[in-house]
């Protein structure tokens, strides 16, 4: 059986155990209170009405009454001071007869608060663990603070690492996808990473490259030893380098590179690895060589080459230009060529043309008089144009100039010659006419005389004499034809090309109706002949000669002459075909020459085909034949529309 | 440790309805990752919003969801914080009597947390009144679920009646629990 004890305390020893006690009477008025509670709330006095000083936070209640206290006797209660800010008491209510005893202590949040509440260790009962808890809390807070700081640092490092990794990933992508070859080596030059571009450029596989040095991979017989040494020296002293050097391929060939190396240091300044970028310079080198070639061509050009800046001032000339102008490069550079080289005889229109084209940035092509340093006049043919950059802006002008002084001289000589030739032609023509006229006159007299002799001696002449006289008449007629022919021939001139629409079909039909055609010969026009712009008289001469020839020389029992035409794109090809004796091959070339007759006919003057040829030539046409001895001949005449 | 309430809610949704639904709910309610942190304050509004989102998705009344939440909270407590359960009493009555004390202590230790506010009154040999301060009527279902969970844990038979629901002058849920 449990023995029930009664505890008796006087206020002094009760105070020691519960220095924050508050004893309330049934009316909830303060009957007695501990020493320490007065320190934290000096307004709390004996006789004070407890609900005026405190509110019940937990278990929450709007007000404090006897019933509420009874209800919460078995509970932990939290009181909040209405007088002192933030003062919280934690404890419990116990009934004592009709009274209520609160035992508990202030709930402090930190060791510092002991002081601000004007308390000390002596204000707490020894059994009260609050101070120790606050100590623990303080330690815990410090630890937590340290942990939080550690976490912060940790997070920072994590983020930095993440950023680094992202940066590294980006760089790695950049390196991998770079068009230039990229190689990483250890400080001993052994390759431990390269991108695909390096494999592509060198033709090696990754396995063949890893662990070897770039020199082992890329050295060829053609490698420039000086550049190589420079690179090696800089590499081993841990410096960056930038060299142009050839790099070998697996197949033994090599390519030009620009190789840039960069050491990567660790935090202590030691070389951690080397990074090299190998740029394929093949194209650049080719362009360089091309440029050298082009400048060589420009420099060595027999013609003068001149390059001006966009302001039109001379930037460069080749040596031919120096020779032609008599000025040296130094004297020319910076000058405007027009001001320096043009003079009184430079045609103002050409000068204006040049200036205008240059202003517009358009090509120019002209001939102009220039003056050399010694004031010697010379003609140049200038061909030039503006040079544009990728953005369509004029950056330079360049021109090639040819000294055409000699050509100009020849041209003027030729002009003089042509004039004198024309004059001679005219004189010759006049002469031919005079001669013809003068020759015809005695012929006509002889003819009359022969006619009179025959008339006067009719019946008295012997047969022999009459025959002779007839022969004289024939020869006279032939002579007349000959003179007429010479006259016609000499009159055919380019100046005669009168242009009118000539209906050739009509002209040829007319010829057929007027010329004498033997009984056994038939002349036909196969297709309708066209209308051409020409001189009617010359066209008639042309066809009449051809058709007469054809008709006259036919030796067959049934003669046939046919005239035809074929139309081409820009011309007509006429043909006059006969079934006459044909022309021997060796004579085909000669028939068009003047006074060449291969006929035994008395009527042939040897001028007909010469006239035809001259007319065709004058119209810029062409005449040729196809012929077979014994079968016939075809004359083809090509006349342009 | 109040994060355990939120963790219990997550566990309930994931194990009952699956992770995809939880992901959707998380997004709809804009739950921050800190939702599951131990020091996350208890937030009635967020719990109600979560329950509403779940209910919308699976067409189960929100009251059922909240009861599910409540039951899972007590079960989680008994599994993960067994020592706490055991220190609070050997039977349901002792446990409930200590419930306000426990939460009040928590309030003192973690001033930045707002623990649920319970009060016990009218303690009789076979019954007691459990007061829960809240102005949100929806929390009633969560509490019923919570008590159901406790009943299962202590393996007791009780009869719970609602004595009072929140109203303007007193934002409280009051249950009478009878043995």
From TrEMBL, chain B:
Molecular function terms from GO: heme binding
One Pfam family this sequence matches: HNOB
InterPro entries: H-NOX_domain_sf (IPR038158), Heme_NO-bd (IPR011644), NO_sig/Golgi_transp_ligand-bd (IPR024096)
Organism of provenance: Flavobacterium beibuense F44-8
Transmembrane stretches, start-end: none
Domain Heme NO-binding: 2-161
Designated name of the protein: Heme NO-binding domain-containing protein
